[in-house]
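Recap for those who missed Tuesday's class. We walked through two folding examples back to back. For each one, the amino acid string is listed first and its predicted structure tokens come directly after. Nothing is annotated here on purpose, so try labeling regions yourself before you check the end of the notes.
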Amino acid sequence: MNDSHIPQPTEMPKVLKESKNKIRVDFERTPLWQRIKAKFFSTFFLQKVVWYVFRLILLIGISYIILFPFFAKVTGSFMYYEDFADVTVRLIPKNWTLDTYKAIILENSYLEACVNTALLSLTCALLQTLVACLVGYGLAKFRFRGSSIMMLLVVLTMIIPHRTIKLALYELFEDFYFFGNVLETDVPLTLLSLTGLAFKNGLFIFMMRQFFTGVPDELEESAYVDGSGVYRTFVQIILPLSIPMMITIFVLSFSWQWTDEFYTSLFNDITFGERILMPKIITVPQSLTSLKATFPAYSMFESAVINTTHILIMLPLVVIYLFCQKYLIQGIERSGIVG
């Protein structure tokens, strides 16, 4: 073959580099005013400034719309009750106080509600994470008759409104005497979590199934060749890979159970005098209700007190999310349902 037809390497990179250096030297030798004019009064620079200002204004506006209600609730929780009748007070309290927080914590048994709700949420979250891993792995890696129907049933648990089965669930556990009268106990929620039918359990199974589908089959095949069984492979190889997903599901399950009012009020009496869970603290403390007869702006103050109970309920979840944020992002990305 004739070498004349073979493309010869060119000196283009060297020429470009030398030209770039020459342009830089020429630019530095020009007067200062001309350099400023060329850099800051060009059409390209003006377009960048306009686009930057537009994005900044847009982000500030969106942030204001999203954060203003939350900021108003936080500042309102520190207001003295007289500030709600003062027309000069809009957002920032004139008289800062922690009386609302003290009344809720002491009179509404906030700490006891935290302990009881934490134990219930922890139990349900652990069971739902375990069930989601087992069922999701089975649906992703094993082919058996009826697997498509089972997956369809999992999806149905995600789209069927929970209120449509409220009465059926209550009657089911009302007649469930295997452990005696299970109402007013954690048995209904524990059994629902253990059987994969609890709140959002279908979503957790779907997320784990999507994650396990992306795990290469070669990992399991190599383990089987080495003599590892199905359960040993699942425990020693698959589960360590799915730790971010498991943490994601655990945090989501814990959070939803922590703030759940539907199932908690269905299986537990939400009035005081029984076991105290988080829904029971969403009420105005007795010491603050005495203002109703003498304070003209009591309705606004009552709304602020209820908002304060919501802030106290969310506070432990905020701490959990701060420590688990990295794993949550990894888990959502690996689940295959981003966007």
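Example two. Treat it independently of the first, because the proteins are unrelated.
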Amino acid sequence: MTESINNFINGKWVQAMSGKRFPSLNPADSRDVIARVADSDVRDVNAAVKAARLAFPSWSNLPAPKRGEMLYRAAEIMVKRKKVLGTLVTREMGKILPEGLGDVQEAIDMTYYMAGEGRRLCGETVPSELPNKDAKSMRVPMGVCGLITPWNFPIAIPSWKITPALIAGNTVVFKPAEETPVCATRFVEILEEAGVPHGVINLVHGFGETVGDPLVRHPDVDAIAFTGSNEVGSQIAGICGSLQKHFMMETGGKNPIIIMDDADMDLAIEGALWGGFGTSGQRCTAASRLIVHKKVCDRLIKQFKKRAACLIVGNGQEQKTQMGPMVNEAQYQKALNYIDIGKKEGARLILGGKGTKRGNCAYGNFIEPTIFVDVTPAMRIAREEIFGPVVSILKVNNLREAIKIANDISFGLSAAIYSRDVNKTAVFERDMDAGLIYINASTIGAEIQLPFGGTKKTGLGPRDAGGRGGALDHYTKWKVIYRDFSGHLQKAQID
């Protein structure tokens, strides 16, 4: 019997007020209906925000180490359920099982990390310019936070947003991607089991127009965090700006791997395969551009094509599978449309380029690993995010030209270089305009203890994950406190 997935509002699992439901389908096999999910609207959003607002005073006043203890328990539960959760990620989102398990591990790591931040919500104590006076700053929570997450990391990215929001003392209304509602539900169930009080975490399922938009516009929501498309992120940023509402977004990338003539070629090809075809290219950090020195370009193309042609495409739950499906029909068609654009622009297709409906791929959204060569920097396939298993190869004369091409786009999330020359990698590290820099590693592999995000149209506001400049900068505001114990009026800056 197909499971029914409900909203979680004020500590209760409830149906959407509309009474409607929508299906969550396995992208590897559309016959597999995973669940029927609450199809919510503004009424459900209003109820969730009200619950979060009422829960805020008691939650924010609970000592942060106590909040951390609940997150620690949640992480322990996830450790015990890692295989079950990872299998669910694979079934609902489509990525292969090792990646599904990695998705869960990242959520475990983030939850442990943020649990520890309950004892490190640091401010500053500084000397006052006046005698008998203290001066300090401290972090305080924002209030009610609306969190909107994507489908490609359906447990990891919710953990990036929910756990720092909670440890900082905020309450949350969580709107997950409609493609992966069951994964989101399991994560919230774990927080409930770990003891997070009623109203502190609220989950509202549904679509952007009917749930996301009213959540962003709600006058009782103090801050919004969004990961998704650049188009939607820009719309949300405009709304939040007009409402003077705190906002952070991470929206995409068009990430390069530069391969120099002195690179370890085998290592570079491994990195290019992982970056280009891991998660079927459905990562904001995917390496969709290979920028290769002319001396080794022909050799790289030959070996890269040979290795990519051997990748086994299929259902991610099968052990032999190396690349799964696109998440839905819309993403499938988008990638195929970009492949057509590449052909029309004059790029030469040397591998893949079409969907596959053979064997165990008959009922899913599968696209073959696809490689274009003779790509120029002005082509759309070299400039726009495809979010599919499509890699463009560009040939360059030197490092300066490679960095110029790499930087000459709207995004600046992740970038990598393969070179044995420490001076070349130092120049790349200095001159590459991206938030994440990798040297002799692929564009994939961020760790939770440092901020995650990029430059230009990749993002706006503070960044996800940990470290200075990370998520806690979004989920807290600064309060400065002066205490004068001199017993008489002292006028600062006045003799």
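Answers for example two:
The domain at 3-251+459-481 is CATH 3.40.605.10 (Aldehyde Dehydrogenase; Chain A, domain 1).
The chain has a mean pLDDT of 97.
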